[in-house]
Amino acid sequence: MTNSNVEEQTVVQSAGSVVSDMSGEKVMFCVDSGKYYNLGAVGGRVWELIASPIPVRQLVDELVSEYNVERSACEEQVAAFLRNLQEEALIEVRKGEA
Fold first, then answer.
1. Is a pLDDT exceeding 60 seen at residue 2?
2. Name one Pfam family in it (predicted).
3. pTM for this predicted structure
């Protein structure tokens, strides 16, 4: 995920993860790496929203409408979260919109 023009990119879950809801938080097991991840409540919501390809701009729009957060803060946090997911090969990042 490049730092420039993050909102112009489209993201989607990579195949090969098993996700479970544990007391309102998403917990994920990646079959390929054998690692477990706790996505938390908001991270779990992001995970739900990226089940099918979604432009990052639309993802941020949705989160801003659901949570009491300023757009700039949301953009920064979403970009950082998506970079972490990409580093772990849990998402695919595509240039442009879906």
1. no
2. PqqD
3. 0.88
Answer whether 59's CB lies under 8 Å from 45's CB. no
CA–CA distance, 5 with 57 (Å, rounded to integer): 10
Q: Report residue 90 as tokens.
A: 């849990």
Instruction: Give me the half-sphere count of Cα atoms (radius 13 Å) on the Cβ side of residue 55.
Output: 9
The tens digit of pLDDT for each residue in 47-58 reads 999 999 999 999
Measured CA to CA, the distance from residue 68 to residue 30 in angstroms comes to 31
Q: Which residue has the tokens 């054998």?
A: 34
Which residues on neighbouring strands pair with residue 92, listed in sequence order? 12
Q: Given a cut of 90, is residue 8 above it in pLDDT?
A: no
What DSSP character marks residue 5?
T
Side-chain-side CA neighbours of 87 within 13 Å: the count stands at 7
Distance of CA 9 to the CA centre of its chain: 12
Closest CA to 2 of 90, 89, 58, 86: 86
